[in-house]
Specification:
One of its GO terms (molecular function) is S-adenosylmethionine-dependent methyltransferase activity. The protein has helices at 22-25, 32-44, 57-60, 84-89, 104-111, 150-160, 180-196, 201-230, 232-235, 248-260, 269-277, and strands at 13-15, 18-20, 74-78, 95-99, 118-122, 135-141, 161-170, 283-286, 294-298. It is of the alpha/beta class. The chain has two domains: 13-31 and 49-173 and 267-298, Rossmann fold, CATH 3.40.50.150; 180-260, no CATH class. Helix 5 links the parallel strand 4 and strand 5.
Length: 299
């Protein structure tokens, strides 16, 4: 492995082909339960055999396409999980550093063996082991709403980005544009999440799998039927309609992600914009497509 001394802090260590942050070696009072939960999830759902279309990457890169990436860019993926985004981005950039504090970093390491420009880094989003103003682009999809100190994580992302660098984000939305019924269904689901996420691992996994079959599949099928009969506009009003073109592996994984995670936050567009602007970003662009809300910010 390269020492990458131009962008990484001096006290980084290499252990079993993984960069280990010095801060990670010490005790940290962050979201231990959440980190362990995602470690369990991504170790099981390793995404190793998913294709590009199955990972739904087109949805996430709709307003900042991969063709806009630069070959000389150095990129950090905060909350890299199994590396599904990293592997897709790899051909378009100089190098990418996948950061994750959980055991899934070992899955990431195994999944990127054939990629010479991808590097695993075990560290916290709140303590990124990179030199200030050294990174061209940071990506963090579906991660920061699970972190206890999201503000600190965004501050760190801003710190390591160069001026005019980009931050591609996805935060869970707070259903601000949805109906009262939609929000009520979510509130019930959130209560269920708080119960399931505290269950022992085996029972938690069985519960999530059961819900994916008994709740997710019927709603997704209903959304397909409604869209076909009454049109796309009405189909999207059904909860979970965004999964109509996803395979069951993704549905099952996302159900585990949704109900098995102890900590979850939700944001409005305004919340996200304020969070980014106060941490040094000068502009924020949102996509109007699913999933809500994703977009990019410029430092």
């Amino acid at each position: 492995m390269n020492n990458n001394s131009d962008i990484m802090v001096s006290n980084i260590k290499i252990l079993n082909d993984i960069y280990i942050s010095h801060d990670f070696m010490s005790e940290y009072s962050g979201s231990k339960e959440t980190i362990e939960s995602f470690g369990e999830e991504w170790t099981f759902f390793d995404h190793n055999k998913l294709t590009y279309s199955e990972s739904a990457a087109n949805e996430y890169f709709d307003i900042f396409p991969l063709t806009d990436f630069k070959k000389e860019w150095k990129v950090v993926d905060v909350g890299c999980g199994t590396g599904r985004w990293a592997r897709r981005i790899s051909p378009y950039v100089h190098s990418l550093y996948g950061v994750d504090p959980s055991e899934s970093i070992n899955v990431f390491k195994n999944n990127i063996k054939s990629y010479a420009n991808l590097y695993p880094v075990r560290a916290y989003a709140e303590k990124l082991p990179f030199v200030s103003s050294s990174i061209d682009l940071v990506i963090s999809y579906g991660v920061l709403h699970h972190i206890k100190d999201t503000d600190k994580a965004v501050s760190e992302i801003s710190r390591i980005l160069k001026n005019n660098g980009y931050f591609l984000f996805y935060f869970y939305y707070n259903f601000e544009q949805r109906s009262f019924l939609f929000k009520t269904i979510f509130n019930i689901a959130n209560l269920v999440r708080k119960i399931i996420s505290r269950m022992p691992l085996r029972i938690k996994n069985i519960s999530c799998d059961t819900m994916s079959i008994l709740i997710y599949i019927p709603l997704i099928f209903s959304a397909k039927i409604v869209a076909k009969i009454f049109g796309e506009k009405w189909g999207t009003r059904i909860p979970l309609s965004s999964y109509r073109n996803k395979n069951y592996y993704i549905i099952r994984n996302d159900c585990r992600d949704r109900f098995g995670t102890p900590l979850e936050k939700r944001y409005s567009k305004s919340d996200i914009e304020q969070l980014l602007m106060k941490n040094g970003f000068k502009s924020v662009v949102f996509s109007e497509g699913i999933p809500f809300w994703h977009g990019y910010a410029v430092k």
